[in-house]
């Protein structure tokens, strides 16, 4: 478009659009000084705001400028969300917004007010969702109670409870169809003899049900140490309790139910999560639903010498003058899953260092995972079926990333590839 009109000079960058040509600036400065609008001593122009608006309006009416701006916007489509990209987008949008008429700016403010009202309405939506969660939690509880009874062996499921097709049974049916009648009878006799000779194992419930889940899930297995496993074998159940509807702030509590053991006296260990369920007044547009903002653990009443969250180390110290040595003991924190119940404390003003911020972010993710995935689908994580489903989603994401990287490599290897035409102008986006 610009090449067809020889009277229009190309606009190279978004910075040129915003700042203007240096020669044009000098001409504007000279004009203002001649009209008495500048400082004769300093030689600096004092430009009237209305004149700036007129100049900006004239620039934005220039077809060449508009074409360059459109090219800039097209180059940003589909780009990543890094700081440099946001910098470019913000600059471009700033130029566009500044050039809009006052009446349009006024209407945009009205739209922003509508957006705030939308966020507040959305918060009410999530309040009703929370009420539904509380309602159905009581319906789920009966199922969870029966699951616990089967796991710990307090009840034996009926034959109708156990009707479920398994791969082993399907394979057995196929084999029986292929065997002749005589072979079937012979196999049946042999199986009966083996059963008579061998005493069938009959453990109580499903041993190490929750421990197996923890070891199957990567996020949790990284937390579980060898010295944690004997303790987690006493874990009978995990429950989630939601805050009452209308209660402020919104939140939930995870309850870990343990059978009597040699490690601590608690029957229940708890982890409470507090959530923000309404838009932040200082940044209402960032609201995307309830989010965890803090968590509180509980005190584990360890029996003497059984606390796996700490370890005692011995050090020898030598006296500089006398040359004598002594042994001192020091207690330090030990890696353990049970540190989960002692999360980092955040100051009242909300300030925290980077390490604490990372630890809390991971803690929030784990708490949410227990609530949304582990507790509702425990048996599927025990068998590994839910883990396969999670892995499928992760693999799809990795494939998409790989395709994107492959596309980038193809562009770089293309002899006709011109980075300047790819919407990438890093020189325009330097951090100030």
Structure description:
- This protein has 14 helices and 6 strands.
- It is α+β, with helices and mostly antiparallel strands.
- The strands form 2 sheets. A 4-stranded antiparallel sheet has the order 1-2-3-4.
- Helix 4 runs antiparallel to helix 5.
- The protein starts with 13 loop residues before the first helix and ends in a 19-residue tail after the last helix.
- The N terminus and C terminus are likely disordered.
What would you call the shape?
A: extended
State the separation between the terminal residues, measured CA to CA. 33 Å
**Biggest sheet features:** 4 strands, antiparallel
Mean pLDDT: 76
| Number of helical stretches of at least 4 residues | 14
Q: What Rg, in angstroms, do the CA atoms define?
A: 34 Å
Low-confidence stretches: 1-38, 40-45, 421-432
SSE blueprint and pairings:
Layout: H1 14-19, H2 22-34, H3 49-61, H4 63-76, H5 83-99, H6 102-152, H7 167-178, H8 181-197, H9 209-216, H10 218-221, H11 229-232, E1 235-242, E2 250-258, E3 268-276, E4 291-296, E5 310-318, E6 325-333, H12 354-374, H13 378-383, H14 385-413
TL;DR of this structure?
With about 425 residues, this protein is α+β, with helices and mostly antiparallel strands.
Structural features:
single chain, 432 residues, alpha+beta, four-stranded antiparallel beta sheet, two-stranded antiparallel ribbon, 6 strands, extended, disordered N terminus, disordered C terminus
């Amino acid at each position: 478009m610009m090449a067809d009109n020889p009277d229009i000079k190309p606009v190279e960058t978004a910075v040129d659009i915003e700042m203007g040509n240096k020669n044009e600036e000098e001409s504007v400065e000279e004009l203002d000084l001649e009209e008495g609008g500048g400082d004769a001593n300093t030689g600096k122009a004092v430009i009237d705001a209305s004149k700036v608006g007129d100049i900006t309006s004239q620039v934005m009416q220039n077809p060449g400028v508009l074409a360059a701006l459109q090219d800039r916007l097209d180059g940003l489509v589909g780009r990543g969300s890094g700081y440099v990209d946001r910098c470019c987008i913000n600059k471009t949008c700033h130029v566009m917004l500044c050039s809009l008429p006052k009446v349009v700016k006024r209407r945009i403010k009205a739209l922003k007010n509508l957006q705030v009202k939308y966020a507040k309405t959305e918060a009410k939506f999530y309040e009703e969702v929370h009420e539904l969660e509380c309602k159905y939690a009581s319906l789920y509880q009966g199922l969870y109670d029966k699951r616990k009874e089967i796991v710990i062996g307090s009840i034996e499921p009926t034959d109708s409870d156990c009707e479920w097709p398994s791969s082993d049974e399907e394979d057995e049916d196929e084999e029986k169809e292929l065997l002749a009648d005589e072979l079937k009878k012979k196999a049946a006799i042999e199986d009966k003899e083996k059963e008579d000779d061998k005493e069938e194992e009959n453990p109580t419930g499903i041993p190490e049900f929750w421990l197996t889940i923890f070891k199957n899930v990567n996020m949790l297995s990284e937390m579980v140490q060898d010295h944690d496993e004997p303790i987690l074998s006493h874990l009978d159940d995990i429950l989630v309790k939601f805050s009452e509807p209308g209660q402020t702030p919104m939140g939930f509590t995870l309850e870990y139910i343990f059978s009597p053991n040699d490690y601590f006296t608690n029957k229940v260990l708890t982890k409470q999560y507090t959530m923000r369920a309404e838009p932040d007044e200082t940044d209402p547009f960032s609201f995307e639903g309830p989010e965890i903002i803090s968590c509180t653990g509980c005190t584990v009443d360890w029996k003497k010498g059984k606390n796996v969250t700490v370890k005692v180390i011995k050090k020898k110290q030598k006296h500089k003058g006398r040359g004598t040595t002594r042994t001192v003991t020091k207690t330090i924190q030990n890696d353990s899953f049970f540190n989960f119940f002692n999360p980092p404390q955040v100051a009242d003003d909300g300030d925290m260092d980077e390490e604490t911020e990372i630890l809390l972010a991971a803690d929030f993710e784990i708490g949410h995972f227990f609530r949304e995935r582990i507790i509702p689908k425990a048996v599927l994580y025990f068998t590994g079926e839910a883990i396969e489903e999670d892995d499928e989603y992760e693999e799809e994401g990795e494939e998409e990333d790989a395709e994107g990287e492959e596309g980038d490599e193809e562009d770089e290897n293309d002899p006709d590839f011109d980075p300047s035409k790819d919407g990438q102008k890093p020189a325009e986006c330097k951090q100030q």
